[in-house]
Amino acid sequence: MNRISWLAVPDEATAPEGVQKLWAKAQGNLGFVPNVFRAQALNPDTFLAWWHDFNTLVNRDGHLTNADRELLAVVVSGLNRCVYCAVSHGAALRDYTGDAALADTVAVNWRHAPLTPQQAALCAYAEKLTLTPAHMTEDDLRDLRAAGLIDHAILEATQVIGMFNMTNRVSSALGFTPNAEYHRQGR
């Protein structure tokens, strides 16, 4: 197996039962265990807490569509130059939209992608919050509301953007490598 993190990575024999159950569920749903699951399992309690928060924000019905949440993930990950997250969430965006060119374009420069006004407003908001969070003001919500987003959706978008900024930093800082399956997914 290729190295997937710059830290030690537990295997099935050393991972605790809760982690093994999550890995088995991922294997059943995806056909593989994401390397981010394996790499973060070194600290199983914090991994499972992260997964709970991530899953609650990203993998559910909410005020944004799954495609919108993945769009935000790809924009944030591209801006942060997080290889793991840009690749893995680019694959998810391809799956949700059926458009490989859109996902690839968004990963490099969302402004060149054929987005709806609402998607463009979400991307602009994600960009500002990612690159210059200290410059956020109440006025930043105006464009989101003008694009038709209600406050519940704005809060959800902000939480998703925050989650991906945190996850990008962990993945990049520890050299997480995306699974090979992600590169083929949705193409």
TrEMBL record:
> GO molecular function: any one?
peroxiredoxin activity
Domain of life of the organism encoding this protein: Bacteria
What SUPFAM superfamilies does the record point to?
Answer: AhpD-like (SSF69118)
Tell me which residues make up the Carboxymuconolactone decarboxylase-like domain: 47-97
Which Gene3D superfamilies would you find in this protein's record? AhpD-like (1.20.1290.10)
Write down the NCBIfam families for this protein, in alphabetical order.
ahpD_dom, peroxid_rel
Which PANTHER family has this protein been placed in?
CARBOXYMUCONOLACTONE DECARBOXYLASE-LIKE DOMAIN-CONTAINING PROTEIN, SI:CH211-175M2.5
Q: What is this protein called?
A: Alkyl hydroperoxide reductase AhpD
Q: What is the lineage of its organism?
A: Bacteria, Thermotogati, Deinococcota, Deinococci, Deinococcales
